[in-house]
Amino acid sequence: MTTSTAATPAVRKPIAWRRVALHAGCLAALLVMLYPLAWLLATSVKPADEVIASLNLLPSSLEWSNYSTALEGVNEVSVWRLLGNSLFIAGGAVIGNVLSCSLAAYAFARLRFRFRGPLFAFMIATIMLPHHAVLIPQYIIFNQLGMVNTYWPLILPKFLATEAFFVFLIVQFMRGLPRELEEAARIDGAGPFRSFFSVILPLTRPALITTAIFTFIWTWNDFFTQLIYLFSPEKFTLTLALRQFVDASSQSAFGPMFAMSVIALLPIVLFFLAFQRFLVEGMANSGIKG
């Protein structure tokens, strides 16, 4: 008994140090990941001569005029107009992806038709296709349709289930749903569309919200595609406006540019915080258990 009691602290001591080391390592990693965000916030209120010249994180004085300059926008287009453009494109992309990808996923996961396997394999293969490989053919098509310098090239493809990653995500979720639910709906006289909208779609909410979150973030941060299709300043998004800010005023506009970056970051943070619990559920689950 004496030997066992004396050995207990010796066994627990290394475990306690391991926990301390683990928490210290996680805290250090957290600080490393949060430093760019802290630097962005601090730089947004720095005077113009300290943005590049000074390595200090904290500014010597708070330059709140950077935000007032950023709110004025660029090229006589206010930041509210730019924000509205970004929200319109991101919102349209979210609606298009959620609707079209869920319909395509329902067909692959729950319906039986010829060449379903090869078509699904072909769709999965398009995930490996670089976006830049199809950009030129898409541009030629939209240019011939007269849709260049409009929002159609940025929103219309989302309604055609072109995002194979999201189709695959929703397919995996739908395959875990009990087929007895559809059989019961079929007995009640429901067809495929009625079963989809009344039975399957409500149960697929976690996967749909995961699709909405990623679509919103990726569309909001998209720069290259918007740069290719949008020419008029009044149609610019916040992402394109950041580039114009630097081109218009060179180094003297770094402070307002970082202030506008903070403004552009807020909708993403708020959108993510509002739906983060569904994100974890949608990525972890593959259907109803039990």
From TrEMBL:
Pfam families: BPD_transp_1. Coiled coil: none annotated. The keyword Flavoprotein does not apply. PROSITE patterns: ABC_TM1. The keyword Ribosomal protein does not apply. Residues 83-275 form the ABC transmembrane type-1 domain. CDD domains: TM_PBP2 (cd06261). InterPro entries: MetI-like (IPR000515), MetI-like_sf (IPR035906). Keywords: Cell membrane, Membrane, Transmembrane, Transmembrane helix, Transport. The chain crosses the membrane at residues 20-42, 87-108, 120-142, 154-174, 195-220, 253-275. It comes from the Bacteria. It is a multi-pass membrane protein. Its main location: membrane. It is found in: Cell membrane. Belongs to the binding-protein-dependent transport system permease family. This is Carbohydrate ABC transporter permease.
